[in-house]
UniProtKB/TrEMBL annotation:
Alphabetical list of PROSITE patterns matching this protein: DEGV
Molecular function, one GO term: lipid binding
Cross-referenced InterPro entries: DegV, DegV_C, DegV_domain_contain
Organism of provenance: Lederbergia galactosidilytica
NCBIfam families to which the protein is assigned, alphabetical: DegV
UniProt superkingdom: Bacteria
Protein name, UniProt field: DegV domain-containing protein
Annotated keywords: Lipid-binding
Amino acid sequence: MKTAVVTDSTSYIPKHVRETLDIHMIPLSVVIKGETYREEIDITMKDFYDEVRNGDKLPTTTQPPIGEFEKLFTELAKEFDAIISVHLSSGISGTYQGAVAAGDTIAGAKVYAYDSELSCMAQGFYAIKAATMAKEGKEPREILAGLDEMKKHMRAYFMVDDLAHLQRGGRLTSAQAIIGSLLSIKPLLHFQDKVIVPFEKIRSRKKALKRIVDLLDEDVKKGKSLQATIIHGNRLDEAVQWKAELTKQYPHVEFSISYFGPVIGTHLGEGSMGLCWTIK
């Protein structure tokens, strides 16, 4: 049985990795000053953050039209028996439901939509795992079981740098943002029950990043073989430095660097940093 793997742009898997593993990508979009840009196609991360920094209001985001799923699935059904479609959390976007609905209309291939229950490269880990297993000739049920096992060990924590950004997006009141900024509070966020919620409030960026490392340390000590990715909001130099420090501290963990692209960056803002990890 031949299985194709699809994901959406918020997995932020590097293009060369997608091409090597034959991972097909459906883009979400951001709307800036009335113009729609397809993520990972029409706008780069840097250009996005430049636009937001200089703009009066936040962009909006849109999920892929169901027709885009139907078009891709129909094309893949000509060559593949099954399609596993991995998407960002159904709690923050209707993208997963779009894949489910489109899959029900396709003849010739069975579509398995998979809810990652989070986003960014943590979601990318699932798509890469699925594509690797598909290339090994694994059946869809085996692949999905592998993703479920990975999900048991998935951890992802994000630090928001700019509380004013959250306030502009309606997720904090002006008073909360002002008080938080005065106290140098850097909220740690994580996904719980498919939505982004506060994990802890921490004073200073340095302490927030150290808290994330402490959480990683707890899992490292369990002895599992882990892979991890640093995720940054237009802070590549800081991410590179953090990766060097973490690689030295945890030589047996496989670290990589990813980023918060336009869609997720709309919610978290420039300067955000995160770390996610799971089993290999």
